[in-house]
Amino acid sequence: MSLVKVKPMQTSVEEADRAKEELEIPPIALQDTSPNIYNGDEQQIEALQAIFGPILKFMKLGGIYFGDTSFKRLGQPSTTGSKKKISIARIYCIVVVGSFWFSLAMSFVSLYVEGFSVLQNVYSLIGFCMWHFVTAVVATTCLFVLPVNVGKKSRFEKFVQNLIERRVDLATLKLHTRKGLILAIFILVVSTLILLVALQWMPDLTLASYKPWNDWYGFRVFWLASMIFSCVVWLLPTLLFCLTCLVLERQFDLFCKRVSLVDSHQTLDITALKKEHQKLCETVSLADKVFSPVLLEVISITIPLLCFNFYTAINPPMTSEGGLMSFSIIGAVYWLLGSAGILSLITIFGSRVNEKVRKLRSNVKI
User: What pTM was estimated for this model as a whole?
Assistant: First the structure.
Protein backbone atom coordinates (compact mmCIF):
# COMPACT_ATOMS: atom_id res chain seq x y z
CA MET A 1 0.00 0.00 0.00
CA SER A 2 2.86 2.37 0.69
CA LEU A 3 4.28 1.88 -2.82
CA VAL A 4 0.97 2.75 -4.33
CA LYS A 5 0.83 5.96 -2.33
CA VAL A 6 4.37 7.12 -3.18
CA LYS A 7 3.98 6.98 -6.95
CA PRO A 8 1.09 9.44 -7.20
CA MET A 9 2.99 11.90 -4.98
CA GLN A 10 6.01 11.82 -7.27
CA THR A 11 3.80 12.21 -10.31
CA SER A 12 2.02 15.18 -8.80
CA VAL A 13 5.35 16.84 -7.96
CA GLU A 14 6.62 16.37 -11.50
CA GLU A 15 3.42 17.77 -12.97
CA ALA A 16 3.62 20.78 -10.68
CA ASP A 17 7.21 21.45 -11.78
CA ARG A 18 6.22 21.20 -15.44
CA ALA A 19 3.30 23.55 -14.91
CA LYS A 20 5.56 26.02 -13.12
CA GLU A 21 8.07 25.96 -15.96
CA GLU A 22 5.34 26.47 -18.54
CA LEU A 23 4.03 29.45 -16.61
CA GLU A 24 7.47 31.02 -16.25
CA ILE A 25 8.52 30.79 -19.90
CA PRO A 26 5.95 33.08 -21.59
CA PRO A 27 6.69 36.26 -19.59
CA ILE A 28 10.38 35.97 -20.47
CA ALA A 29 9.57 35.56 -24.13
CA LEU A 30 7.18 38.52 -24.11
CA GLN A 31 9.71 40.79 -22.47
CA ASP A 32 12.32 39.92 -25.07
CA THR A 33 10.13 40.03 -28.15
CA SER A 34 8.23 43.26 -27.48
CA PRO A 35 10.41 45.70 -25.52
CA ASN A 36 9.09 49.14 -24.60
CA ILE A 37 11.35 51.70 -26.23
CA TYR A 38 10.40 54.30 -23.61
CA ASN A 39 11.54 52.35 -20.55
CA GLY A 40 14.94 54.06 -20.50
CA ASP A 41 13.43 57.54 -20.81
CA GLU A 42 11.39 57.76 -17.60
CA GLN A 43 14.03 59.69 -15.67
CA GLN A 44 14.49 62.12 -18.54
CA ILE A 45 10.73 62.69 -18.73
CA GLU A 46 10.60 63.35 -15.00
CA ALA A 47 13.46 65.85 -15.27
CA LEU A 48 11.80 67.70 -18.18
CA GLN A 49 8.49 67.69 -16.36
CA ALA A 50 10.16 69.24 -13.33
CA ILE A 51 11.66 71.97 -15.54
CA PHE A 52 8.81 72.82 -17.90
CA GLY A 53 5.78 71.36 -16.10
CA PRO A 54 5.24 74.08 -13.44
CA ILE A 55 5.47 76.86 -16.04
CA LEU A 56 3.05 75.09 -18.38
CA LYS A 57 0.58 74.67 -15.50
CA PHE A 58 0.59 78.40 -14.81
CA MET A 59 0.30 79.09 -18.53
CA LYS A 60 -2.70 76.75 -18.57
CA LEU A 61 -4.28 78.77 -15.77
CA GLY A 62 -3.49 81.92 -17.74
CA GLY A 63 -5.32 80.62 -20.81
CA ILE A 64 -2.38 80.36 -23.22
CA TYR A 65 -1.75 76.59 -23.02
CA PHE A 66 -4.20 73.67 -23.19
CA GLY A 67 -1.99 70.60 -23.60
CA ASP A 68 -0.47 68.00 -21.30
CA THR A 69 1.70 69.37 -18.50
CA SER A 70 3.07 66.08 -17.15
CA PHE A 71 4.64 64.70 -20.38
CA LYS A 72 3.42 61.22 -19.37
CA ARG A 73 1.93 60.69 -22.80
CA LEU A 74 5.40 61.04 -24.33
CA GLY A 75 6.56 58.04 -22.32
CA GLN A 76 3.94 55.68 -23.75
CA PRO A 77 3.89 54.02 -27.19
CA SER A 78 0.14 54.57 -27.53
CA THR A 79 -1.93 57.17 -25.73
CA THR A 80 -5.56 57.93 -25.25
CA GLY A 81 -6.31 61.44 -24.10
CA SER A 82 -9.43 62.71 -22.38
CA LYS A 83 -11.17 64.53 -25.19
CA LYS A 84 -13.69 66.19 -22.88
CA LYS A 85 -11.00 67.65 -20.66
CA ILE A 86 -8.94 68.84 -23.59
CA SER A 87 -11.99 70.47 -25.18
CA ILE A 88 -12.81 72.39 -22.00
CA ALA A 89 -9.22 73.63 -21.72
CA ARG A 90 -9.20 74.60 -25.39
CA ILE A 91 -12.44 76.56 -25.04
CA TYR A 92 -11.07 78.32 -21.96
CA CYS A 93 -7.96 79.35 -23.88
CA ILE A 94 -10.03 80.60 -26.81
CA VAL A 95 -12.12 82.75 -24.46
CA VAL A 96 -9.02 84.24 -22.80
CA VAL A 97 -7.24 84.94 -26.08
CA GLY A 98 -10.47 86.34 -27.50
CA SER A 99 -10.58 88.80 -24.60
CA PHE A 100 -7.10 90.01 -25.60
CA TRP A 101 -8.27 90.71 -29.14
CA PHE A 102 -11.40 92.44 -27.83
CA SER A 103 -9.21 94.64 -25.60
CA LEU A 104 -7.20 95.52 -28.68
CA ALA A 105 -10.42 96.49 -30.47
CA MET A 106 -11.41 98.60 -27.47
CA SER A 107 -8.12 100.50 -27.58
CA PHE A 108 -8.44 101.21 -31.32
CA VAL A 109 -12.02 102.41 -30.91
CA SER A 110 -11.03 104.72 -28.06
CA LEU A 111 -8.10 106.03 -30.09
CA TYR A 112 -10.44 106.83 -32.96
CA VAL A 113 -13.21 108.33 -30.80
CA GLU A 114 -11.21 110.29 -28.24
CA GLY A 115 -7.51 110.05 -28.98
CA PHE A 116 -7.25 112.31 -31.98
CA SER A 117 -9.86 114.76 -30.73
CA VAL A 118 -8.27 115.11 -27.28
CA LEU A 119 -4.55 115.38 -27.91
CA GLN A 120 -3.40 114.72 -24.34
CA ASN A 121 -4.98 111.25 -24.48
CA VAL A 122 -3.31 110.08 -27.66
CA TYR A 123 -0.09 109.01 -25.89
CA SER A 124 -1.83 106.70 -23.44
CA LEU A 125 -4.16 105.22 -26.06
CA ILE A 126 -1.33 104.46 -28.48
CA GLY A 127 0.45 102.70 -25.63
CA PHE A 128 -2.69 100.65 -24.94
CA CYS A 129 -2.92 99.69 -28.62
CA MET A 130 0.67 98.47 -28.74
CA TRP A 131 0.40 96.60 -25.43
CA HIS A 132 -2.82 94.76 -26.32
CA PHE A 133 -1.53 93.98 -29.79
CA VAL A 134 1.63 92.24 -28.58
CA THR A 135 -0.36 90.40 -25.90
CA ALA A 136 -2.96 89.10 -28.35
CA VAL A 137 -0.41 88.06 -30.97
CA VAL A 138 1.91 86.27 -28.53
CA ALA A 139 -0.98 84.47 -26.80
CA THR A 140 -2.36 83.29 -30.15
CA THR A 141 1.05 82.03 -31.23
CA CYS A 142 1.50 80.09 -27.98
CA LEU A 143 -1.73 78.20 -28.64
CA PHE A 144 -0.35 76.97 -31.96
CA VAL A 145 3.28 76.12 -31.17
CA LEU A 146 3.26 74.91 -27.54
CA PRO A 147 0.49 72.38 -26.70
CA VAL A 148 1.58 68.78 -26.10
CA ASN A 149 -1.62 67.09 -27.14
CA VAL A 150 -3.15 64.04 -28.79
CA GLY A 151 -3.10 64.37 -32.57
CA LYS A 152 -0.71 66.43 -34.63
CA LYS A 153 2.58 67.10 -32.87
CA SER A 154 3.29 70.70 -32.02
CA ARG A 155 6.72 72.26 -32.37
CA PHE A 156 7.26 72.23 -28.64
CA GLU A 157 6.31 68.54 -28.42
CA LYS A 158 8.89 67.68 -31.09
CA PHE A 159 11.48 69.63 -29.14
CA VAL A 160 10.66 67.81 -25.88
CA GLN A 161 10.78 64.40 -27.56
CA ASN A 162 14.19 65.27 -28.96
CA LEU A 163 15.39 66.12 -25.44
CA ILE A 164 14.06 62.79 -24.19
CA GLU A 165 16.02 60.94 -26.84
CA ARG A 166 19.17 62.90 -26.04
CA ARG A 167 19.06 61.84 -22.36
CA VAL A 168 21.11 64.72 -21.03
CA ASP A 169 21.31 65.24 -17.27
CA LEU A 170 18.98 68.16 -16.55
CA ALA A 171 18.16 67.52 -12.89
CA THR A 172 20.09 70.56 -11.63
CA LEU A 173 17.97 72.95 -13.70
CA LYS A 174 14.89 72.43 -11.53
CA LEU A 175 16.14 75.08 -9.12
CA HIS A 176 16.13 77.69 -11.91
CA THR A 177 12.48 76.90 -12.61
CA ARG A 178 11.53 77.53 -8.99
CA LYS A 179 13.45 80.81 -8.85
CA GLY A 180 11.93 81.98 -12.12
CA LEU A 181 8.40 81.13 -11.01
CA ILE A 182 8.84 82.88 -7.68
CA LEU A 183 10.04 86.02 -9.47
CA ALA A 184 7.22 85.82 -12.04
CA ILE A 185 4.56 85.39 -9.35
CA PHE A 186 5.99 88.34 -7.41
CA ILE A 187 5.87 90.57 -10.51
CA LEU A 188 2.34 89.35 -11.27
CA VAL A 189 1.16 90.25 -7.76
CA VAL A 190 2.79 93.69 -7.94
CA SER A 191 1.29 94.32 -11.39
CA THR A 192 -2.16 93.31 -10.13
CA LEU A 193 -1.90 95.71 -7.20
CA ILE A 194 -0.83 98.52 -9.52
CA LEU A 195 -3.79 97.80 -11.80
CA LEU A 196 -6.18 97.88 -8.84
CA VAL A 197 -4.77 101.21 -7.70
CA ALA A 198 -4.95 102.57 -11.22
CA LEU A 199 -8.57 101.47 -11.56
CA GLN A 200 -9.56 103.56 -8.53
CA TRP A 201 -7.23 106.57 -8.46
CA MET A 202 -5.48 106.78 -11.84
CA PRO A 203 -8.21 106.86 -14.47
CA ASP A 204 -5.93 107.81 -17.36
CA LEU A 205 -4.04 104.52 -16.81
CA THR A 206 -7.17 102.44 -17.48
CA LEU A 207 -8.57 101.95 -20.94
CA ALA A 208 -12.12 101.61 -19.63
CA SER A 209 -12.07 105.25 -18.47
CA TYR A 210 -12.02 106.49 -22.07
CA LYS A 211 -14.97 106.87 -24.40
CA PRO A 212 -17.11 104.99 -25.32
CA TRP A 213 -16.36 102.46 -22.54
CA ASN A 214 -16.62 104.77 -19.54
CA ASP A 215 -20.44 104.59 -19.35
CA TRP A 216 -20.60 101.01 -18.05
CA TYR A 217 -18.69 99.71 -15.02
CA GLY A 218 -18.61 96.20 -16.49
CA PHE A 219 -16.03 97.32 -19.06
CA ARG A 220 -13.73 98.36 -16.23
CA VAL A 221 -13.99 94.92 -14.63
CA PHE A 222 -13.44 93.21 -17.99
CA TRP A 223 -10.41 95.35 -18.78
CA LEU A 224 -8.91 94.70 -15.34
CA ALA A 225 -9.25 90.92 -15.77
CA SER A 226 -7.84 91.14 -19.28
CA MET A 227 -4.81 93.11 -18.06
CA ILE A 228 -4.11 90.61 -15.26
CA PHE A 229 -4.18 87.75 -17.77
CA SER A 230 -1.98 89.76 -20.14
CA CYS A 231 0.70 89.89 -17.43
CA VAL A 232 0.84 86.08 -17.66
CA VAL A 233 1.48 86.42 -21.41
CA TRP A 234 4.09 89.05 -20.64
CA LEU A 235 6.03 86.91 -18.14
CA LEU A 236 5.68 83.15 -18.64
CA PRO A 237 6.64 82.74 -22.34
CA THR A 238 9.78 84.74 -21.57
CA LEU A 239 10.52 82.49 -18.60
CA LEU A 240 9.96 79.42 -20.78
CA PHE A 241 12.43 80.80 -23.32
CA CYS A 242 15.05 81.46 -20.63
CA LEU A 243 14.78 77.90 -19.28
CA THR A 244 15.05 76.50 -22.80
CA CYS A 245 18.26 78.48 -23.25
CA LEU A 246 19.60 76.92 -20.04
CA VAL A 247 18.73 73.46 -21.38
CA LEU A 248 20.56 74.21 -24.62
CA GLU A 249 23.56 75.48 -22.68
CA ARG A 250 23.69 72.20 -20.79
CA GLN A 251 23.61 70.35 -24.11
CA PHE A 252 26.59 72.32 -25.41
CA ASP A 253 28.55 71.97 -22.17
CA LEU A 254 28.17 68.20 -22.11
CA PHE A 255 29.07 67.90 -25.77
CA CYS A 256 32.25 69.94 -25.31
CA LYS A 257 33.08 67.89 -22.22
CA ARG A 258 32.76 64.65 -24.17
CA VAL A 259 34.97 66.03 -26.93
CA SER A 260 37.64 67.07 -24.42
CA LEU A 261 37.59 63.66 -22.72
CA VAL A 262 37.86 61.83 -26.01
CA ASP A 263 40.61 64.12 -27.22
CA SER A 264 42.59 63.64 -24.01
CA HIS A 265 42.70 59.89 -24.60
CA GLN A 266 43.76 60.38 -28.23
CA THR A 267 40.95 58.15 -29.55
CA LEU A 268 38.86 60.68 -31.43
CA ASP A 269 36.04 59.02 -33.39
CA ILE A 270 35.09 61.48 -36.13
CA THR A 271 32.01 59.51 -37.19
CA ALA A 272 30.55 59.38 -33.70
CA LEU A 273 31.44 63.02 -33.17
CA LYS A 274 29.61 64.04 -36.32
CA LYS A 275 26.50 62.12 -35.30
CA GLU A 276 26.52 63.75 -31.88
CA HIS A 277 27.00 67.16 -33.46
CA GLN A 278 24.12 66.56 -35.87
CA LYS A 279 21.83 65.63 -32.99
CA LEU A 280 22.84 68.78 -31.17
CA CYS A 281 22.12 70.87 -34.26
CA GLU A 282 18.73 69.20 -34.57
CA THR A 283 17.91 70.11 -30.96
CA VAL A 284 18.83 73.74 -31.54
CA SER A 285 16.83 73.81 -34.77
CA LEU A 286 13.72 72.49 -33.04
CA ALA A 287 14.07 75.07 -30.27
CA ASP A 288 14.43 77.79 -32.89
CA LYS A 289 11.20 76.70 -34.57
CA VAL A 290 9.37 76.93 -31.25
CA PHE A 291 10.51 80.36 -30.15
CA SER A 292 11.40 82.24 -33.33
CA PRO A 293 7.76 83.35 -34.01
CA VAL A 294 7.26 84.47 -30.40
CA LEU A 295 10.57 86.31 -30.26
CA LEU A 296 9.88 88.02 -33.58
CA GLU A 297 6.56 89.30 -32.29
CA VAL A 298 7.87 90.35 -28.89
CA ILE A 299 10.97 92.15 -30.14
CA SER A 300 9.36 93.80 -33.18
CA ILE A 301 6.59 95.31 -31.05
CA THR A 302 8.33 95.80 -27.70
CA ILE A 303 11.15 97.90 -29.15
CA PRO A 304 8.75 100.55 -30.55
CA LEU A 305 6.78 100.37 -27.29
CA LEU A 306 10.03 100.89 -25.37
CA CYS A 307 10.91 103.94 -27.45
CA PHE A 308 7.40 105.36 -27.17
CA ASN A 309 7.33 104.96 -23.38
CA PHE A 310 10.77 106.51 -23.06
CA TYR A 311 9.60 109.52 -25.04
CA THR A 312 6.44 109.77 -22.93
CA ALA A 313 8.45 109.57 -19.70
CA ILE A 314 10.75 112.46 -20.62
CA ASN A 315 8.10 114.46 -22.52
CA PRO A 316 4.85 113.85 -20.63
CA PRO A 317 1.61 115.09 -22.17
CA MET A 318 -0.01 118.25 -20.81
CA THR A 319 -3.54 118.67 -19.55
CA SER A 320 -5.92 121.24 -20.95
CA GLU A 321 -5.01 123.52 -18.01
CA GLY A 322 -1.30 123.28 -18.86
CA GLY A 323 -0.28 120.89 -16.08
CA LEU A 324 1.59 117.61 -16.36
CA MET A 325 -0.32 114.34 -16.48
CA SER A 326 1.59 112.67 -13.66
CA PHE A 327 -0.39 109.45 -13.92
CA SER A 328 0.68 109.04 -17.53
CA ILE A 329 4.30 109.45 -16.43
CA ILE A 330 3.86 106.65 -13.88
CA GLY A 331 2.33 104.38 -16.51
CA ALA A 332 5.05 105.17 -19.02
CA VAL A 333 7.83 104.47 -16.51
CA TYR A 334 6.18 101.19 -15.46
CA TRP A 335 5.81 99.97 -19.05
CA LEU A 336 9.31 101.26 -19.83
CA LEU A 337 10.88 99.19 -17.06
CA GLY A 338 8.79 96.14 -17.95
CA SER A 339 9.62 96.29 -21.64
CA ALA A 340 13.31 96.85 -20.90
CA GLY A 341 13.33 93.89 -18.51
CA ILE A 342 11.75 91.54 -21.04
CA LEU A 343 14.13 92.58 -23.80
CA SER A 344 17.11 92.30 -21.45
CA LEU A 345 16.23 88.74 -20.44
CA ILE A 346 15.72 87.66 -24.05
CA THR A 347 18.99 89.26 -25.11
CA ILE A 348 21.05 87.90 -22.22
CA PHE A 349 19.92 84.30 -22.42
CA GLY A 350 19.91 84.28 -26.22
CA SER A 351 23.44 85.67 -26.34
CA ARG A 352 24.61 82.96 -23.92
CA VAL A 353 23.44 80.25 -26.28
CA ASN A 354 24.99 82.12 -29.21
CA GLU A 355 28.28 82.27 -27.32
CA LYS A 356 28.18 78.50 -26.80
CA VAL A 357 27.65 77.99 -30.52
CA ARG A 358 30.51 80.33 -31.36
CA LYS A 359 32.91 78.57 -29.00
CA LEU A 360 31.90 75.17 -30.34
CA ARG A 361 32.58 76.25 -33.90
CA SER A 362 35.97 77.69 -32.97
CA ASN A 363 37.09 74.69 -30.90
CA VAL A 364 35.62 71.84 -32.96
CA LYS A 365 36.07 71.76 -36.71
CA ILE A 366 33.63 69.16 -38.07
Answer: 0.78
